[in-house]
Design brief:
6 helices; 7 strands; Rossmann fold; flavoprotein; two-stranded antiparallel ribbon; single chain; five-stranded parallel beta sheet; 207 residues; alpha/beta
C-alpha cells in the first residue's frame, strides 16, 4: 500500500494542519507498518504556478532547461499521485480557501487525459479508488450553521475537485477556531488528534 503525504502550510513547526496531517499518517502507519509513504512539502519545495511557456513545453515544444526540469517535476508529481492508494493533505485555510501552494499542486494533478476526460456524456473522473484524508486548520468556525459558513470556499472546493477526478472517498479532520485563543487552539488540536487516532485503517484494494 502506498500513501502520499502532502503539507501546504507556510508556518513550519507552528502549523496546526501539519500537526494534524502528521497524526493521520502516524495512525495509518500504526495500522500498517509496511505502508510505503512518500512525503512532499509544498511550502518548503513549492511547485511553480502554471505558465503558458510550461504548457507549451509539456506539449512537446522546445523549452529552456528550467522548463524541461519543470516538466519532469510535473511528471513526478502525477506519478506519485496516481500510484498512491491513500493521499493525506495538510490544508490550512488562507483567506477563505486553500493555500496557493496547494493550488499549484492541484493544477499538476488535475490534467485532462490523466485524471479526467471529456466525452459526449460529459466529464469522467479517472482517478477513482483512492482514499483522500484532509487535515483542515482554520482560525474561525465554518461548520453548518456557523455565521462564517458561507465563507468556506476551502472544503467545498476540495470535495468538488477530487469528486471531479473520480474520488468520492474524501474525509476531513478539522481543527477549527484556532485563532480565537491559545486555549481554543489547544482544544481544537486535541479534538483533531483524537479523530485522527480513531481513523479506520486503509484496506487493500480488492483483487
Amino acid at each position: 500500500m502506498k500513501l502520499l503525504h502532502l503539507d501546504s502550510s507556510i508556518l513550519g513547526d507552528n502549523s496546526a494542519s501539519r500537526e494534524v496531517s502528521a497524526a493521520i499518517v502516524t495512525r495509518l502507519r500504526q495500522a500498517d507498518p509496511s505502508l510505503d509513504v512518500t512525503y512532499r512539502d509544498l511550502a518548503a519545495d513549492p511547485v511553480p504556478h502554471l505558465s503558458g511557456a510550461y504548457l507549451a513545453a509539456a506539449a512537446g515544444a522546445p523549452g529552456s532547461e528550467a522548463l524541461q526540469q519543470e516538466v519532469a517535476t510535473s511528471t513526478a508529481i502525477m506519478d506519485e499521485f496516481l500510484a498512491a492508494d491513500t493521499v493525506v493533505i495538510g490544508a490550512p485555510m488562507y483567506n477563505f480557501t486553500i493555500s496557493t501552494q496547494l493550488k499549484a499542486w492541484i493544477d499538476r494533478i488535475a490534467v485532462r487525459g490523466k485524471t479526467f476526460s471529456y466525452s459526449e456524456n460529459g466529464p469522467q473522473g479517472l482517478a477513482g479508488g483512492k482514499r483522500v484524508i484532509i487535515a483542515v486548520a482554520r482560525g474561525n468556525l465554518y461548520g453548518p450553521g456557523a455565521p462564517a459558513a458561507p465563507l468556506d470556499f476551502q472544503e467545498p472546493y476540495l470535495r468538488a475537485l477530487f469528486g471531479f477526478i473520480g474520488i468520492s472517498d474524501v474525509e476531513f479532520i478539522r481543527a477549527e477556531g484556532i485563532g480565537f485563543s491559545p486555549e481554543h487552539r489547544k482544544a481544537a488540536l486535541a479534538s483533531a488528534q483524537e479523530t485522527a487516532a480513531a481513523l479506520k485503517p486503509t484496506l487493500p484494494k480488492a483483487a
